[in-house]
Amino acid sequence: MTITRAAPARAEAAWSTLAPLLAARRSVRLWSPGVGFDQARTLGRRLPDRPAAIPIFDARGRTTLLALDFDPQHHGREQVIRDSEQAAQWIREAGGRLIMDESTRGGRHVLIPLAAHIGLPVRHLRPVLDELARRLPTLDITPMTNLSTGCITAPGSPCKQGGHRQLLTPLSEATDAATLRSAPGTIARLSAVLQISCIPTKAAPAAEPTDLPLHHYEEEPAAEPSTAAAAVTSSSAALPPVILAFAEHGELPARRTRRGEPWTRSEARQSVLAHAALRGMTLDAVLTTLAAGHWPGLRAAYERYGASWERSLKADWKKALTWANKATSNSRLSAHQPKHTGGQQGLKEWLARAERWTMLCQLLDGQTRWTTLALWQALAYGAQLTGTTTVAHGRRWLAIAAGLLSDETVSTMLRVLRDIPGSPILLIEKGTGTQADRYALVTPRINGHEVPVDPAILDRTTIDPVHPAWSVIGLPARQIYEALDRAADAGQYNVRPQDLAEDTGMSPTQTYQALIRLAEFNLVDRGYGWARRTTRTLIDIATEHATDDLRAERIARHRAERQAWHDLLALWNGETTTDCPDTEQLPSDPWLDADRQDYLTSVLATGPPQTDELPHTPLGHQAEPDQHTVDLLVSLLGARVVQQTSDLQLL
Q1: Which pTM does this prediction carry?
Q2: Cα–Cα distance between 353 and 460 in angstroms, integer?
Q3: Residues facing 385 on adjacent strands
Q4: How many CB atoms within 10 Å of residue 564?
Q5: Higher pLDDT, 367 or 159
Q6: Alpha helices, DSSP H, located in 387-525
Q7: Total number of domains constituting the chain
């Protein structure tokens, strides 16, 4: 196919029709030579005079557009054509609608408008994007993974090399696709077409699990498993038939509560979530399943909550996680304990598994992920000090060992992490009195399968507390700095950011952000495509920012808080005789003897006041009210003035 520059009229028609329908926000970014898409303006129907890109994600970080960008830079235009046509075939097999256009340089965009009003976060799309990128060498998924700047040039937009993007899909068909959009569940069906499985196959038990994919169920009856979309999460069996009947069709199970009352929709929906949690599903997986339209019965059970239905479902999900955790606690503990051999090597293996689990867990992202890694480090350090695989250190101790985290953050993260199915920690004893909660360090699982030990992570794992300097720099940069430190000595060799991202499991965006942060503290030198560690150390940062003093102040505060708590416990237990040790007891008579006698002598010497010093108010009478008071009573309360003898009375 020979590409020709689209006529301005056709480009104008494509832009004015499709750009407003595809953009996630009413804005557009304009390209400037040597700078990029740096200028933003309001999106209009008039065709811009330079390359213009529409935003992919809305203000919440969600999208209704799957934008595939095929770049000919490394593999040529012919490979772009093959890859884009293959992607289009898979999308059509999944029942999706698509729009395809081409630039004057030979690059192509395949745009899939997803169901309206069901915006998906990028983590729901990432498994599909990663699999497509693995199979299609010219596909660049960067625009779909950048929430803040993710954008795509729309059909009809001017190209950098001149001309305009030519619409390969007929305009009428493209308009229908952008207006009618793809049916709900397109992403789930596409993952089935690509045969993305969330369960490692038995043929390759040592393979590392990939990022958690979309969980979905087939739309046909369970008795006819005809497609790969029937894969479940962590169990080879789907939900129990009566529970699945409610999830799919809203049929209430013929069961009764402990009080003997028939189940309502409330008990039924809670049962669906509890069974889903027991099988290793995540909250995101449940929401994706509902968005795909596979559990309409469960979705209908939340209709009564209106726009806040998702908030109600999240509250129910917390209860389901608690139940699932209790239901599996005994089996998890007995199954995991033999896996630990104790000692330094056993703890290193646990920490390596925990780090891998954290990078795979969809419930953890952003700052939460780096905080979790620091907390694992503190728990492993505490276990090393005690020589066991259980830890009973309080939140204050863990906060210090995790790099001066706040005490509240440690408490919150422990509660969240222990409730996630497959978590590396298991609460085995609730703390009472002066004893903290006791956690067992168990083998983490994803989808019911043990997270394997990554040899690369194991080799670099050390059991040490987190350096307090990271409380100033920020935990996200810690992984990159340690990777640089392992790669080469200070100031000797350059390392590519791509290698750092691969070594740490961080995304390219996270890697560059961490390098920028480290450069602000002069811990790294960086340039285009390289970075290296400087001779400055964490000790220098700690000295400049007095983190040792902050640590000492925190420890002193913790000691005071512990002592106050111990004193209060002693008071509750009757181990102290002083009810209020810091309160000075007051005498029952505040007067001293000499002062009391002087006061009485003074009063008796002067005697009572004279009669003319008293206000003249005859007994049994009240002073006459002034006119202002009378006016207020009449106007506000409706009183009537009655003249009786010489007294003024109000009725």
Answers
A1: 0.41
A2: 13
A3: none
A4: 10
A5: 159
A6: 395-401, 407-418, 455-460, 470-473, 478-487, 497-504, 508-520
A7: 5
